Amino acid sequence: LEPAPSPTPSTSTFPAQSAYRAYLAAGRQLSFDLSPFGFCSGDGSLTEAAPVAATFEGSAALRRTETWRFNFTNCVPNSLTRVRDLFLDTNYAPIGESRPGGSYAVFDRPLVLPTTVKVGDAGVLAIASLYTDSTKANPSGTTEYRFAARADDRADAILVDITATTTPVAGQQTTEVRTYRVTSSGDMDLLSGTFTEDGRRLIFTVD
């Protein structure tokens, strides 16, 4: 029998801030499985493009495009694509985002994780003001970004959940959670996540 894995020591600290910045500075493509929900199951992919030069709110910035592709079994529709442009400052900290045909968000501060985190750490990272488009003529709600650090099943890593809770001016609240693993050496990987919308929950697990 193999020995049971050692969980993250409660006093160990991990370099979350530099790990997240390095994660956002790079591009990658991931595939994932979707946990069954209702009669549906499926799989998909996430393409995170490396940042390119851009402008945001009149200042120099970086733009990082995420493309989600979902393939469903026994569902209508049987596929779904979502695109998000995440804008970063020159230190690779998120400062805003836009979604085609969706919303435009301006963060009240750069979204920066603490320099180091340990099990039990949590807090608000940023609050975004949402608009229907970049003219900002029509406010549409707010999104609160929070983090929570919890034990991994290995001693040299910690799990960090980044949760985005959107409260629209009209309609139901939506939640997106992404779970990352941060190692003691500063590596960061996306492991899984949850989208909750209109009372429905979609859970993905990276292959």
Please provide a written account of the structure.
- It is a single chain.
- The chain is mainly beta and 207 residues long.
- Helix content is 5%, strand content 58%.
- The chain has 1 helix and 13 strands, in the order αβββββββββββββ.
- The chain has one helix at residues 16-25, and strands at residues 28-37, 40-48, 52-56, 59-73, 79-88, 94-98, 104-107, 122-131, 139-151, 157-168, 174-183, 188-197, 200-206.
- The protein has a 12-stranded antiparallel β-barrel with strand order 1-2-4-5-6-7-8-9-10-11-12-13.
- The longest helix has 10 residues, at 16-25.
- It is globular and about 55 Å long.
- The protein starts with 15 loop residues before the first helix and ends with a strand.
- The mean pLDDT is 93.
**Arrangement of strands in the largest sheet:** 1-2-4-5-6-7-8-9-10-11-12-13
Based on DSSP secondary structure assignment, what is the total number of beta strands? Answer: 13
**Biggest sheet architecture:** 12 strands, antiparallel, barrel
Q: Give the percentage of residues in beta strands.
A: over 45%
The end-to-end distance, rounded to whole angstroms, is 25 Å
